[in-house]
Amino acid sequence: MGSRRRMMGSVSPYTRLSYIESDGTTGSHINTQVSSYTNTNFEIKFMPLSPFGTTHHVMIGCSRETSTGNLSIDTYTAADATSNGRIYTGSQFIEGHLTSGDNIVKLNGTTCTINGTDYTVIRSTFTYNYKIYLFAELHQSSTRYRCAGRIYYVKIWRGSTLVGDFIPVLKNDTGEYGFLNLVDDTFHTNTNLSGG
User: Which residues have C-beta within 8 Å of that of residue 174, sequence separation ≥ 6?
Assistant: First the structure.
């Protein structure tokens, strides 16, 4: 609640924005500092600016070498596919259903709601604790698949416990763009970001 009071106060350290935009270049991703587990759930509103196609661009994600450890939203579309993007929920993915405009995706257990339509997904068991990135994917210790796009908000749960409630802001004293996590009042930023 402290951050909510500060946001609404007469002298706020942050200006609330509608979105944060990444240009998809080096340094344009954000580390949420929230770890991913088997029971991680999330909701995100975003617009991809990187194209759908056979090149990976990840809006939110983390992964590891084994195929079970992948939690991400990716613009990748197989060459023979007729729909856009993939949402990985471990060793499995659901393909398509994303648009080039605004999307709202919510993963809750084995239900993935994409722009208002529910789909049943398979969740894999993985117990690593890699951090969840925005505008890219953390692959073990390296950053890959950077994505140009806009993110309007992100909520992350571990089970039913909210651990990340990210809103886009401008930090007034430094002019930095990033996300404020209302759960722990932490500010997350990087270079090559803008907002509106």
Answer: none
Ordered domains of the chain (ranges, CATH)? 30-166 (2.60.120.200)
C-alpha dihedral over 9, 14, 15, 20, to 10 degrees? -150
- In this model, does residue 46 exceed pLDDT 50? yes
Residues 6+ apart with CB under 8 A from 78: 54, 95
What is the arithmetic mean of pLDDT over 34-52? 88
How would residue 57 be classed by pLDDT, with cut points 50, 70 and 90? confident
pLDDT single digits (tens) 115-146: 999 999 887 766 567 888 999 888 877 888 88
C-alpha neighbours within 13 Å on the C-beta side of residue 161: 6
For the chain, where are the E strands, in sequence order? 14-16, 20-23, 30-35, 40-48, 58-63, 70-74, 86-89, 93-95, 103-108, 111-114, 117-120, 131-134, 137-139, 142-144, 148-158, 161-171, 176-181, 186-189, 193-195
Residue for token digits 């509106």?
Answer: 196
| Chain centroid, CA 2 distance in Å | 24
Amino acid at residue number 164: G
